[in-house]
């Protein structure tokens, strides 16, 4: 059973993916474009923008959920000895991506951007938003790839939990998109003011991933996940 700790980390990872320096500044224009507007401030398109943001979120949530189900099916049938090695590999991957987010290592292919290109539209804007949401799940930029890779690494170490972790990640990533779609007129200003905090947030989360990776690699994660803080305070 997946611990509340790892579910919380996956949810927070989704938020960090949204707040990535190479993602957040592009969000307002991207959602507005999907809704057929030039700006999120267009009052006549507010409802359309919000509904399109819902379908966009559904697109990547469905794909992540399918991936989680597939991982659950595969990992639960793997022998215990293999699971131990997968835990070590997953822990090493989490540490690797943590070091990348902190900025201590630089890998060329991760530094190459893979932004979505809106070259195809369908008769329904909602279908277009859904499909591009699904495409977003494959990795809009290396920032998303690093954080998502860490969650996939965590999922590999916990057979049976992949679906829950990826669903929590989808919620964390989707919630800010929905907030931007709901509060269109304020979104651009808030994002502009918040931009200076993006790098520190990624560094902090990178440090968190390094610690998490060490715990996963040494198979010590359950010690923290099952720690009863209330009893510790009372006994202390």
Write the layout of secondary structure elements.
Elements: H1 4-18, H2 27-34, H3 46-75, H4 80-102, H5 125-136, H6 142-156, H7 162-182, H8 184-194, H9 198-217, H10 221-225, H11 229-235
Helix pairs in contact: 1-6, 1-7, 3-5, 3-7, 4-6, 4-9, 6-7, 7-8
What would your notes on this structure say?
By secondary structure, the protein is mainly alpha-helical. It has one domain (4-235). 71% of the residues lie in helices and 0% in strands. It has 11 helices and no strands. It has helices spanning 4-18, 27-34, 46-75, 80-102, 125-136, 142-156, 162-182, 184-194, 198-217, 221-225, 229-235. Helix 1 (4-18) crosses helix 7 and helix 3 (46-75) packs antiparallel against helix 7. The radius of gyration is 19 Å and the shape is globular.
In a few lines, what is going on in this structure?
The chain is built from eleven helices and no strands.
Which terms summarize this structure?
236 residues; mainly alpha; 11 helices; 71% helix; globular; disordered C terminus
Mean pLDDT, as a whole number? 76
Q: Count up the domains.
A: 1
Oligomeric assembly: single chain
How widely separated are the two ends? 29 Å
Largest sheet: none
Shape: globular
**Portion in beta strands:** under 5%
Element order: H for helix, E for strand: HHHHHHHHHHH
Please report the total strand number as a whole number: 0
- Name the structural class: mainly alpha
């Amino acid at each position: 059973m997946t611990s509340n700790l790892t579910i919380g980390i996956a949810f927070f990872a989704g938020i960090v993916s949204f707040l990535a320096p190479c993602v957040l500044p592009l969000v307002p224009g991207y959602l507005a474009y999907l809704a057929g507007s030039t700006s999120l401030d267009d009052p006549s398109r507010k409802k359309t923008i919000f509904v399109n943001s819902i379908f966009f979120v559904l697109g990547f949530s469905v794909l992540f959920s399918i991936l989680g189900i597939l991982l659950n099916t595969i990992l639960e049938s793997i022998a215990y000895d293999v699971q131990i090695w997968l835990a070590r590999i997953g822990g090493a991957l989490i540490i690797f991506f943590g070091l990348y987010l902190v900025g201590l290592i630089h890998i060329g292919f991760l530094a190459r951007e893979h932004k979505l290109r809106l070259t195809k539209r369908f008769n329904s804007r909602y279908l277009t938003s859904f499909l591009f949401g699904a495409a977003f799940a494959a990795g809009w930029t290396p920032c998303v790839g690093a954080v998502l890779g860490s969650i996939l690494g965590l999922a590999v170490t916990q057979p049976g939990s992949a679906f829950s972790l990826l669903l929590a990640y989808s919620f964390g990533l989707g919630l800010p998109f929905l907030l931007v779609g709901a509060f269109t007129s304020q979104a651009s200003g808030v994002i502009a003011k918040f931009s200076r905090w993006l790098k520190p947030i990624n560094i902090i989360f990178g440090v968190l991933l390094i610690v998490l990776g060490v715990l996963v690699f040494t198979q010590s994660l359950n010690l923290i996940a099952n720690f009863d803080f209330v009893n510790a305070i009372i006994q202390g």
